Amino acid sequence: MRPIHSKITEIVEESPNVRTFFFDTQFDEAIPGQFVMVWVHGTDEVPMTLSGKNSITVQKVGDATSRMFELGIGDHMGLRGPFGRGFTIPGNGENVLFIAGGVGAAPIAPLADIVKARGIEGRTILGSRCCDELLFRERFACGRVDITTDDGSEGRGGFVTDQLAETDTSDYDRIYVCGPEIMMYKVFEILKARNAHVKAEFSLHRYFKCGIGVCGACSMDPDGLCVCRDGPVFNGGELEGSEFGHYERDSSGRKCHF
Amino acid sequence: MKVAGIELKNPTILASGIMGTTGAALARMSRNGAGAVVTKSIGPVPKKGHNNPSMVELECGYINAMGLPNPSYSGFCEEIGIAKGKMDAPLIASIFGGNAAEFTEVAKGLLSSKPDCFELNVSCPHAEGYGASVGTDPDLVHEITASVVDAVDVPVWVKLTPNVTDITSIGRAAESAGASAIVAINTVRGMAIDIHSGYPILGNRFGGLSGPAVKPVAVKCVYDLYEALDVPVIGVGGITCPEDAIEMILAGASAVEIGSAVHDDTQIFVKISKGIDTYLQKYGYSYTEDITGLSHEMI
């Protein structure tokens, strides 16, 4: 598909470095965890997980995202998608646990919306560096929310993993995880020690070129799965013994260790 | 089946630039039935490639301008080792450079990882100073091919661009320099523009067209090269089903490479090689080589 010319209809400043952009293009068929390739004309195109049917939530980290932050309502970006494999939607009666760190709350929030709409209870461990960067806390109000901040400015001082270590996960049928890879890997290790990693799903990020599972730039060791096509959401069982938590590759294909 | 100096498991080969960045990805394509695999094109120094969008599906195929991203030969030896450790299909190392010295440096640099064959990329249509910039000049192609052939002890294939007036003159130059096979074609130079913003879609503004739209172009190039050359021709361009592959073989291909079609079906290699076998049985042939170039006899 060619990029869909999409007008920015609303911009929400979530924190000094994170903004949500709403578009006049709606991806009704998108499954939570799926992404769109976002083309910032004249700059670059980057993958962004949908934080809603017509929104992306962006952290300012590089050229493309910095340029996005210069755009206003009425400006346009090109959107292609939705692409990739999203999260497994929880069934009725299933207990769910969300674990989100920083802007990693963006792909998880649409799942929380579904859980809330169905009246199921979903518990959340939501972490960030400081209280200003806690994202979408109101969208996670579908059950108990444990907040952690690195600097202790709100909730528990420390990491989501500290909270998880003290959380009994045996009651949960599904666990959804997104955040920085080091955080996700620590979560994976805690869950694996409990043999609970197979009921967890992790949303990964890698450098994408084509975004459609052809070029292989985002393929993971050792099975050659493409994060853009076979993921970006993977079951914990699929990540066992993989590069996850150890290294990723830069745009030239060289390994970069975490 | 032995083609141009290497033993293919079947006539379907993974084309360069597709799932070829890591050893694990190459081995996955071998598991999916590829008769051999060609790596991403590797050059002398690490290269990040063009900005995105770098590949977009159009109505008639795909347009791409990756910009030869690669970790350099020193960074890629490990990946070839990994691929070879995980599969028994032959591995063909695609390489590029700006001149004969660079090509030779890359080929020599990869030799320790024991690729079964080299494929010289003198045909990428959108990398300034590389690819088609050198592959449109028969003298340069001759010099580069001769230099690599002299430096390595495995077969050397040369992949050509269709973006020339007479592809056979380039093919002859490569053949006379010692190429074991000619691979045709690389992508057809093209461009797509977003009519709403006015921007060319690719980060590089223009790039190369692949997929179904280019198949008739490829069939004609293969047909002409088969007529002009003695070495085998490997057909590539827009093959998505057994019928496409058979058409390419009838035009003169000894084997085919498959690229963009991996998008729709990662099991495409099994489907196409089985389909070729079914066709051979149906028409009373034993081997792919029995039908290679058959259409040339139909006059």
Summarize the structure in short.
The complex is a heterodimer of chains A (258) and B (299). Chain A has 258 residues and is of the alpha/beta class.
Describe this structure in words.
The complex is a heterodimer of chains A (258) and B (299). By secondary structure, chain A is an alpha/beta fold. Chain A is 17% helix and 34% strand. Chain A folds into two domains: 4-83, Translation factors (Elongation Factor Tu (Ef-tu), domain 3, Beta Barrel), CATH 2.40.30; 96-257, Nucleotide-binding domain of ferredoxin-NADP reductase (FNR) module (Rossmann fold, 3-Layer(aba) Sandwich). Chain A has five helices and 17 strands. In chain A, strands 10-9-8-7-11-12-15 form a seven-stranded mixed β-sheet, with helices on both faces. A six-stranded antiparallel β-barrel of chain A has the order 1-2-5-4-3-6. In chain A, strands 13-14 form a two-stranded antiparallel sheet. In chain A, strand 16 and strand 17 form a beta hairpin. Chain B has one domain (2-50, 67-196, 210-297): TIM Barrel (Alpha-Beta Barrel), CATH 3.20.20. In chain B, 34% of the residues lie in helices and 17% in strands. Chain B is globular, with a radius of gyration of 18 Å. The model of chain B has no long low-confidence stretch (mean pLDDT 96). Chains A and B meet through strand 4, strand 6, strand 13 and strand 14 of A and helix 1, strand 5 and helix 2 of B.
CATH architecture of the largest domain in chain A: 3-Layer(aba) Sandwich
Q: Which strand order spans the largest sheet of chain B, edge to edge or round the barrel?
A: 3-4-7-8-9-10-13-14
Q: What's the count of strands of chain B?
A: 14
Radius of gyration of chain B: 18 Å
The CATH topology of the largest domain in chain A turns out to be: Rossmann fold
Largest sheet of chain B: 8 strands, parallel, barrel
Mean pLDDT of chain B: 96
SSE sequence of chain B, one letter per element: EEEHEEEHEHEHHEHEEEHEHEH
- Give me the CATH architecture of chain B, please: Alpha-Beta Barrel
How many H/I helical runs of chain A? 5
Tell me the domain tally of chain A: 2
Going by helix content, strand content and strand pairing, the class of chain B is: alpha/beta
